[in-house]
Batch of 2 targets.
Target 1
Amino acid sequence: MADTGLAEVHVKCSSCPIRHRAVCSRCEQDELDVLDRIKYYRDFTPGQTIVWAGDEMDFVASVVTGIATLSHTMEDGRRQMVGLLLPSDFLGRPGRETAPYDVVATSKITLCCFRKGPFEELLRSTPSINQRLLEMTLDELDAAREWMLILGRKTAREKIASLLAIIGRRDASLNMSTADGRLVFDLPLTREAMADYLGLTLETVSRQISALKRDGVIQIEGNRHVTVPDFQRLIEETGDDTDGGLIA
Amino acid sequence: MADTGLAEVHVKCSSCPIRHRAVCSRCEQDELDVLDRIKYYRDFTPGQTIVWAGDEMDFVASVVTGIATLSHTMEDGRRQMVGLLLPSDFLGRPGRETAPYDVVATSKITLCCFRKGPFEELLRSTPSINQRLLEMTLDELDAAREWMLILGRKTAREKIASLLAIIGRRDASLNMSTADGRLVFDLPLTREAMADYLGLTLETVSRQISALKRDGVIQIEGNRHVTVPDFQRLIEETGDDTDGGLIA
DNA sequence: CGCAGAATTGATACATCTCAAGCTGGGTGG
DNA sequence: CCACCCAGCTTGAGATGTATCAATTCTGCG
């Protein structure tokens, strides 16, 4: 079933894990009933391309579980990630025919999909969805702008530290981590994906991670498992204002 | 009056130059009447800071005329522009207390302002505004993502060509330019502002502009007046797919 | 166990930054 | 009316951070 991406199960909205954060989070029960009727799930396997840039895109979706990336690819192969989709994030743009970027599953991923036409109809008739989508889009725009600072002005070391801080912070807010500045998480990205995120080569990513490890800013087991002994220290390495509460 | 930014005149919405493109573009007459009652104008002079990052921001606004920039500044002075506000663009974020970036007037500029509270009320009660703001925010997000590709993966020469193409295209769509691939416009930014836009130093900007001039891709009179003899050629220099219709 | 993808490490090349010196044009005051 | 001034810009020479090319070495998994 992985090839078609069609999933067998149909979870009720009321027991959906992203119920309180996704584009539907402000919906009343009657609105959820409508969504429940028209939604459908699709699963993708790691590495699988969900949408190709330029392809017609006849659906929009929420990420239920898993991770996906949005990226531009230039003709000569240079690639820049421009979005990272985590659970509850929204994929697709109402009022647009074709996808502007490649969307690729980084992990096993499940999407909650709506055909574009019906969703656009809902958007017009359901203020709670329109307002939530506006809020989510504004948040994404903020994230994109912080990302632009990283891409345009930070050194390779600061870029790596920034990415680790972003991932660590998100994990902390999800997993109710220890509040004592210690932080443990798994990287959801390969070195190459990190390079695409940060506008670096994978070699430079590797070197800078090694350097941060040498300097005691982080510890690593295996390739993915990261321990940050002192989050504040990591923040200092990002070049940002050192305000640094875990949930910022 | 430039110091307070308060403008003397009060233009009726129905005869406003950005009537058909701004956040209010989908409003009916009765909705415009409401806006007309609560809006107020503010003027700023070139170089004047409209909002400082971190300051409380008690208003939102549409740019009526002129140009402003949004930018992050790091503690050590590194600066990255993250937004360029042109006429009809929207400034401010409903539901946020403090400004995340500096907003600086690049030219003489006039804003059509609304106090934040009343505007948020309107947003809740007026779907036409909410929907238009969503659409505009999605457009900005797309622009931010294209910008991320420029920042992360393009060479200095490609960055300059991309910026010239962006400015040229916009001017072409406004001024109904000659359709024969020739293009003439004025740069709205200094070399330093271009550098902040592109994540370069101003020296590199200057060198690359000189190089493009040497290679016949552009001609320059004075410091700002640019002629592009062959727009397609410029597009080839951006590194993007060479689709290149003027209005893309 | 062994293999393939992922990651590390090294040597070198090169694009862009940095520091420094001069140029240019428009505005101002003597 | 001219000389000066200064912000904005250009150009040069050298330093430096990151990319590139090229081996190895890990790590997780069948």
Target 2
Amino acid sequence: MKLKVFLLDADYITEKEEAIIRLWGKTDTGQNVVVFMRDDPYFYVLPQDPQRAKEEILAQIKKKKLPIKDIFLEKRVLDGESKTFLKIVCFLPQDPSKIRNAIKVFEAKRGGSGSIIEEYEYTLNFYRRFLIDHHIDGNCFLEIEGEKIETKYDVDIALKGRKINPLEDYHLPPLKVVAFDLETHERAGKKEIVMASFYTQDKQIVITNQRTAHYPNWVKVVETEKELLEGIIKTIKELNPDIIVTFYGDMFDFQILNERCKANKVKLILSRDKKQAKFARRARISSARLNGIVHLDIFHFISNILAPNLQTEVLSLDAVSAELLGDKKIEVDYQEMLEAWRKGKNLAKLAEYCLKDSLLTYRLAKMLLPQMFEIARTVGQVIFDTSRMTYGQLVEWYLSRHAHEKGAIIPNQPKYEDILKRRQATYVGGFVKEPASGLHENIAVLDFRSLYPSLIVSFNISPETLNCKCCKDNGYRVPEMEYWFCARKKGFIPELLKELIEKRAGIKKRLKEVPKDSLEFHVLNNRQYALKIIANATYGYFGFPGSKWYCKECAESCTAFGRFWIKKAIEEAEKAGFTVIYADTDSLFLKGKDGNIEKETKDFLTHINQAFPGMLELDLQGFYLRGIFIPRGAAPGTAKKRYALLSKQGELLIRGLETVRRDWCRLAKEVQRTVLEYVLKNLDIEGAKEYVKKVIEKIRAGQVPVRDLILYEELTRPLETYKQMGPHVMAAKKLKASGKEVGEGMLVMFVITKGKGTISQKATPIELVNSIEEIDTHYYTYHQILPAAMRVLQVLGVRKEQLLP
DNA sequence: CCGCTACGGGG
DNA sequence: GGGTACGTAGCGG
């Protein structure tokens, strides 16, 4: 039969010594499908002498009983040159890496003088390789030919696939998305699950084993944790989601669920193949994968991909929702929550709180899923993987896919020693014009459109075009450097990037023609965004120490060309009568003469863009009423942009100011924000000074509630294992000494109190603070309030002393 | 100043 | 079925 299926996820199993790909999918009519495909893993060997190497390996197969299915010669491109490789076809997914090791061993015995130079692509994951080989663009529609088979899996159709044909159809089928959230409570050092919520289009469920008479009717109450766990599993089964979304579920919700199921001897069966879920706890990046159901932990996508474009510095569900959705979590402070679980107080509110977390996660997912799917399709891998990738990994898989399609070998990952060496290598970054200190009015912000991608394409920056033999005198010379790039033959990366940029330009053109509220508009818009992400990350990937296409000279050349052109732009802006108040890498902040800044800027742009070569172009980012810039501190080259701008709508755009971190007390954060408002909205520096003075007076007079001074830090491991006595560790020790229970994972709430010694020595858990008199007013004045306020005020010529009462 | 350690998200 | 997170801030020496 033939079936049109949207690919949700892919993985593999081994059965009877054979590797089998599983494609999990969904039809447009809502049926869940699994397709089994036979395929053989393989890898490449680069030989000195192909025939001799082949014979040697064949001899080894006999001698060592290496499980090799087939060997043949194949031409592929390495470093821009076509070479003959041995393609080693294996049986099982883990074999390429094992056999490669065996080959390394027998090569080493010959003292490295044997016939094999290097092995390639032996670490490519089997199903990811399958997607590349079959030109499957991640989560896309496929036409599958095959036979229906019987299965015990929890699916509507199981097929033994014969042929796959990827379709150019970019809509999404109807997908059931369920958001999921857990609440836990620590008893005797063990986290237990006390509540769970589910949110989907037409159903909201909360299950808990905490009894109260006041629950709304959508709360289901059970007796024990075990029943709660069984309820969670049953609910997921009944909701039958295609996608489960969590916020931090990889590291929290699913980990805890797994642990508690083990402790309660409940089988955690959620997957469509009815296998018990297995999660690695040890490794740093462990992801909870449910076979046949896509678990998306949107925290990864937010922190890896969105974070640089977000205002917020903290990536909590609360802060992210506030920014993206304009909605917040229900406010429950930590003490209140502990009381709820301990004493059964306010449980109805906790149920609302738990459900709201799922609701926010659901709404974020609804907003981000189309983008995430487009990234998966652009990169050509499944969303389970791509949603967890960093920019570098997205670029790497994008390049890998296209390298293979262009007949090239995918370079190996660097060895650990090489990574260490590469980390030492430094090079000059973008050009920064330090901001003129003080407040600025009427600011225009300009930036180069995709500066580094444009430079890579325009000057053919690629590992194989670097210092070519053919263009020593007439290649693209890099400013300030001794390098050049080939002007005759297009490099692999510039060529790909050019295709990508042209594709994006095509989409953007089409976007202007389709109605803004149409489905096509949204699909295309997400697609252009995905392409932009890949394009912009390519420069960073050149310089990333773990990169398979690492090229320090390429990265260095990008910044060198970049510096050259932004200096040119600054020069031209000044010639045109602007004052350049600040410039960083690819952006310019301009102050006009006295006239109409908007018109002046637009005229300037028209003029300068005619003068720029190739793809280089300056764009208008926006106009602002007022702004304050905080110059780079002690760490040159690495400091982020720190500034705050006031838009015409009266909104504060704050960048790089770390007011909202956990190691700052609530009061310090409030002070910084208020100071910014005084300065930018009211131009009232005196007012800001007075305000800070008053706050300090209040601290000294003991009029600030202790809760505004609390610092929060978590004990991430058992107390005894700490060598480094941070403040929270010391506070926890004091708590323990007072007879209180202190466990791993506990959030230590402490304040800094009067006394002798380091800050750590003066950290006291709030449980042991009886009076506001004990607070170290000196610490809060000089290490919290003043630095937070001075971050902003020092550039306005205010000195610390002026803030002291 | 340098090297070591812990942080993040979740509750 | 396998995994080298990472970039940085703050403390102590």
